[in-house]
Amino acid sequence: MEPITVAYMVIQLETGGTERQLVALLEGLDRSRFRPVVVVERAGGALEQTVRDLGIPIHVEGRRWRWDPFVPVRLARLLRRERVDIVHAFESMEDVYGVVAGVLGGVPVRLMTWLSLRYPRAHMALLWLAMPFATRLIANSEHARRWLQRRYRPASRVIAIPNGLDVEFYARARDVAAKRRELGLADDKGPVLGMVARLRPEKDHETLLHATKLLVNRYPKLVLLLAGDGPRQAELEHAAARMLAPGRCRFLGNRKDVADLYHVFDVSLLMTEYEGMPNAVMEAMAAARPVVATNVEGCAELIADGLNGLLVPLHDAPALADAVARVLGDEALARRLGAAAQRTMRERYSLRMLVERHERLYEELAARRRRR
């Protein structure tokens, strides 16, 4: 039997959580059973070469203007030309274009992966219109599945495939001393806090900066490392300079070495206001770091408070400072939380589980369509 051809659609192969999940899936996919092709709106993403190195073709089919009604027509031609069996789209507008193009191109299986519960209103309206033409809606977390099932009928079409990652890659021992020297921390014996997140409003860096200001009173040599870039960088750099002494908060920009950075962090943080399934929390847990995160659904799905991490209320700098101080002041607690976090990742969210869940779904739906 010929391999099942799966066309994956994403805006661009950048280093965001969605794109990293897609690349992880592509790396693990059984190529004797599946033939993947990737369709992007914009070329030149940081992960594009990784996909090309896997021998996977990449097609660029961009929008000519913001709302381009001819995109599905062009995509349909591509899907027919590639003899696609399954179109699997990620992100809001790609979901819409992918499903419509799949219908026009005669693709029997059309999948939408739902990554956020807070898409822009216009995108949400288009998604609701496209949903009836999707074979399955895939939520990347259990709480997102429940949310969708309450709003979409038939609910049986909504399934959950949680994010996954290569736990052993993040668990691997690192040369922490060398990385500290590279970051200019070699002579600074204070604790290191870190957050890997885009510099966007919903990541609530302000609360983290306020908590850091409180913690510096207890730990004068404490350093906060912020990995990620985004539209608020200048604003947040100004706020950090106003609240903290020079060198206490360092903006690292977009990094390719986040797996190494986690091992430098004494506590890994995520102060997000909402989240589907936070890759930054999963990665830190896989690296056996004690994690402190906001008590929102995506984080709470991964963290059992006090067992494999700590959860704090939104926008509560004193509570955050107390939670971090609790971990920094108790080495046994830090080790216990980190070990339990890594165990959670191995048992529930491994890369192999992510790949196998997708492979089973593809084969089940392709076989059902062939029988029809």
Name the descriptors.
372 residues; alpha/beta; Rossmann fold; 2 domains; seven-stranded parallel β-sheet; six-stranded parallel β-sheet; 13 strands
How would you describe this structure to a colleague?
By secondary structure, this protein is an alpha/beta fold. It folds into two domains: 4-164 and 350-371, Rossmann fold, CATH 3.40.50; 167-348, Rossmann fold. Helices cover 46% and strands 16% of the residues. The protein is built from 16 helices and 13 strands. The protein has helices at residues 17-28, 48-53, 71-81, 92-104, 121-130, 142-151, 167-171, 176-182, 205-218, 233-243, 258-264, 279-286, 297-302, 317-328, 331-348, 351-371; strands spanning 4-10, 34-40, 58-60, 86-90, 109-114, 136-139, 158-160, 192-196, 223-227, 249-253, 267-270, 291-294, 310-312. The strands form two sheets. The chain has a seven-stranded parallel β-sheet, with helices on both faces. Helix 2 (48-53) links the parallel strand 2 (34-40) and strand 3. The chain is elongated and about 65 Å long. The model has no long low-confidence stretch (mean pLDDT 92).
Our count of helices gives: 16
DSSP, total strands: 13
- Average pLDDT figure: 92
Name the overall outline: elongated
The fold-level CATH name of the largest domain is Rossmann fold
CATH class of the largest domain: Alpha Beta
The sequence of SSEs as H and E is: EHEHEHEHEHEHEHHEHEHEHEHEHEHHH
Gyration radius, to the nearest Å? 22 Å
Number of domains: 2
- Which residues sit in consecutive blocks of at least 5 with pLDDT less than 50? none
Q: Strand order of the main beta sheet, please? A: 3-2-1-4-5-6-7
CATH superfamily of the largest domain: Glycogen Phosphorylase B
Question: Approximately how much beta-strand content do the residues carry?
Answer: 15-25%
Instruction: Give the proportion of residues in helices.
Output: 40-55%
Question: Structural class, from helix and strand content?
Answer: alpha/beta
Architecture of the largest domain in CATH? 3-Layer(aba) Sandwich
Distance from first to last alpha carbon: 17 Å
